[in-house]
Amino acid sequence: MIKKIIICSIIGLLGGCSVTSKPISENERYEEAKSDLKQLFVKQDILKKKLDFPEALARGLKYNLDFRIKLVNSALQSGQLKIAMYTMFPALNVSGSVYSRNNAYASSGTTSAGALTDVLNSTPNTIRSARGAVSWNILDFGMGYVRAKQQSERVYIAEEESRKQLQQLSQDVLVSYWDAFSAQQLLMEATAFQKLLTEAKGKLNVAMHDKTVPKETLLNYQAALLEGNRRVIQLQYKYDKAMIDLKHLVNLPLDQQFSLEPPPLALRKIHNLSHLDFRKLDAITLAKRPELRGQEYQQRIAKLGVQTAILQALPGITLNEGWNYNSNKYLLNTMWVDRSFDVAWNLLNLASLPTALETANTQIEYEKIKLMAMTITVLTETRYAYSHYETLRREYEVAHKQTENARALFELNRDRRKASLASDQQVIIADLRTLTTKMDEDLLLSDLSTALGELYLSSGSDILPLDVGNRPLNEVADIIHQNFVLQNTWDFTSYVNFTYEKYFGKNVDTVNVTDPAQTTNKIIAQTPATASTASTASTASTASTANTTQFTIQVFGDYDLAKVKAVQKELHATKLTQYAQTKNKGHDWYVLTYGKYKTSKEAELNIKKLPKNLRDLSPWPRKTADLAWPI
User: Fold this and answer.
1) Which one of 135, 184, 257, 415 has the lowest number of neighbouring Cβ atoms within 10 Å?
2) How far is CA 195 from the centre of its chain?
3) Degrees (nearest 5) of the Cα angle 564, 614, 563?
């Protein structure tokens, strides 16, 4: 092996050792692709024949590969931060050696008179030595500290990028789901219409040879049938494309078949934005948009670059201390400790300091300008999202009236045909107009829901925390369902008012939303313990430590206490429910609870007796052992 290395080195010096890799063949690429495909869908929950929107979004959050890449990047940046922190510590070096020779290391000399001395041997043939040393360069410590600070900012940047990816993924799933569902419903309605079109084509072919029928009437009739066929073809393509996009986003096999459940009511609700306060919306957008927060961290990194430039121009001071051992028996001291103090200064770094500082300050100015550009961009996006939603809302109102008008015309022609006052052609054309106007209305409703999602997205709204992907699929889907139930209880204006108050405090001149925390506590304090609520709200407030009550009903849960209180207020359930605190994934977790019960079965029976607005939140029994109720 040693000879081969020597020969290769000699050849490398003479002409160069050829070190090249071979390209990947088509067969190798295909085999690798097959292996990747097998791993794409492993360890995923089995999909049922029907898919609803909360599960679709939950699958996207857990299994979408683009989102997982961002999460892995966050973990990678965290690991780089730990590595950067180690560079601040002193270097601890341990070394050892064994030295041996085949004859004695002996020497002789002469005296001042010129006489030869005896042979002297001060070193044995084999020597073993070891050294353990601590070396600390103070300049490296300073540079390591600054770089670790910069890396800590990059960790925050990676988290903001993950937030942005999560928000965009939610929007993409929403768009694809809505498109696929609306097309699915319209295709079901178009099936019967296609049969009618087939029959109409046969009648049209016969009528074309009937000279008593005006040619213009037949051509208009044929144009209507062709338009109907074209619309159905477009609808089929829209459905196929939306389903392919949805499968890609939620990481499902492209050939898997399933149907879609209706989207949540919150996505079909028409929001009134006439009282939207843009000052509040702008403040929320500037505080929560991931791009702005990430650029703020980038600006911090640039400012730390000034410190880096200054440190690089300073002299390097190194402190060394080592413990040594040598097996040479002729030494008087075979073990000793040495210390040294070294100074090194690259004067060229000092000469380049003005240029380095100028470059660092230019970088700060560059990042500042980027932040300003992003600021006006995100504010523009919120205005565009608002204008887009309002335009679609008005257009949808017109489309809805057009559908009602077309349906009324169809019913009128159908009734007239029964009375022999209208032809089959008139009924078919009226039916076609009903289908096309209904198609336009449904597609507009889909676009309207998408525009609402853009409004939430442009304001930096987080639908879920980043760590939600670590939970089971059914739990993630349940949290998403609860969030959409919450959205259904208020409109976007209420969300803006509540979020603004949460982050910036109440503005009595413009905010009409009452403080949910004060309202909740006040009502609970003033609610008497009546006999009718002895097993529910009064039990929760007076018997929280009783050993006989081991279960409660969890109605809603979230990391944000303000959101839990908001749900309690919006559902008008302050007299029935109470919030409690626990821990989840090491963080505070707040739950909205209803009553206390001796057994889980008793709690399940009481779930059926809950008001409908509480049952819509998918409540479930849970133990009270780990819950702490406010006093």
Assistant:
1) 257
2) 45
3) 10
**Residue 182: Cβ-neighbour burial (10 angstroms; 0-12, 13-18, 19+):** buried
Alpha-carbon span 611 to 594, nearest angstrom = 11
Among candidate residues 454, 525, 582, 484, the one with its CA nearest the CA of residue 263: 484
**Bigger pLDDT: 367 or 560?**
367
Indicate the pLDDT class of residue 345, thresholds 50, 70 and 90.
Answer: confident
- Each residue of 500-553: pLDDT tens digit? 888 887 653 443 333 333 333 332 233 333 333 333 333 333 333 344 568 888
In angstroms, how far is CA 61 from the centroid of its own chain? 7
Q: What are phi and psi of 134, to 5 degrees?
A: -110, 125
Instruction: Please list, in sequence order, all residues whose beta carbon lies within 8 angstroms of the beta carbon of residue 140, skipping any fewer than 6 positions away.
Output: 87, 316
The CA-atom distances, in angstroms, between 588 and each of 189, 412, 553, 581, 585 are 49, 62, 19, 7, 8
- Determine the Cα–Cα distance for residues 58 and 494; give it in Å rounded to an integer: 26
Distances in Å between the Cα of 548 and the Cα atoms of 91, 545, 552, 609, 622 are 61, 9, 12, 21, 15
Look up the pTM and report it.
0.64
Beta-strand pair 91-100/126-137 = antiparallel
Helix (H) or strand (E) holding 150: helix 138-208
Residue 208's closest CA among 221, 195, 226, 193? Answer: 221
* Phi, psi (deg, nearest 5) at residue 456: -65, -40
Q: What is the DSSP letter of 117?
A: P
Under DSSP, the state recorded for 518 is: H
> Any residues with CB less than 8 A from the CB of 608 and at least 6 apart, and which?
615
**DSSP for 363-396?**
HHHHHHHHHHHHHHHHHHHHHHHHHHHHHHHHHH
| pLDDT band at 213; cut points 50, 70, 90 | low
> Which residues are bridge partners to 337 per DSSP?
323
DSSP string of 403-416, one letter each residue: HHHHHHHHHHHHHH
Q: In this structure, which amino acid lies at residue 581?
A: Q
Question: What is the pLDDT at residue 217?
Answer: 67
The CA-CA-CA angle for residues 153, 374, 386, to 5°, reads 125
Tell me the Cα Rg of the chain. Answer: 38
DSSP state of 249: H
> What distance in Å separates the CA atoms of residue 516 and residue 566, rounded to the nearest whole number?
6
Q: E strands along 281-420, which residues? A: 316-326, 335-344
Look-up of token digits 């929007």: 171
Q: CA 585 to CA 461: how far, in whole Å?
A: 22
CA angle 400, 405, 410 (to 5 degrees): 125
Token pair belonging to 457 = 């997205």
Please give the Cα distance from 263 to 242 (Å, whole number). Answer: 15
Quickly list DSSP for 447-508: HHHHHHHHHHHHTT--SS-GGGGGS-HHHHHHHHHHHHHHHHTS-HHHHHHHHHHHHH---T
Q: What pLDDT score was predicted for residue 162?
A: 82
Give 289-327 pLDDT, tens digit per residue: 999 989 999 999 999 999 888 888 888 888 999 999 999
Q: How many CB atoms lie within 10 A of CB 270?
A: 14
Q: How far from the centroid of its chain's Cα atoms is residue 373's Cα?
A: 24
- In angstroms, the CA 564 to CA 594 distance is 13
- Report the relative pairing of strands 50-51 and 259-260 from DSSP bridges: parallel
The two tokens of residue 572 are 């008008």
Phi then psi for residue 100, to 5 deg, are -140, 145
